[in-house]
Amino acid sequence: MRWLARCKCILRWLFRHRQVEKGLEDERHDHLERGIESNIRAGLTANEARPGGAPADGADCNPPGRVPERARDAFHRDIARDLRYAIRMLRRSPPFTGVAILRLALAIGANTTVFTFVENQLT
Span 4-21, mean pLDDT? Predict the structure, then answer.
């Protein structure tokens, strides 16, 4: 079930990456606002509570735009790791790999044939 959630996340990022990045930016902004409120409640002035001022207890102050960049880097690392794992598994079982490649080739060929036929009938 975990792989299904991961696939949904990957597809969402691939096709809606602007929305994902905006969501990450909104989340970062919300996190900073909560940090400022927490610092003000702890007794800091409004200027000291801001990340550009004196950050309390060594808080990590990410500049704008860095969070989506880090998330994108983590996404690319995850994709690369998943591809290496898939290649390793396909190498481990050559008969399965051969059957999988053959089925993909047949499916692509069948799709091409059907779409070509339909397109020729419509024109």
Answer: 72
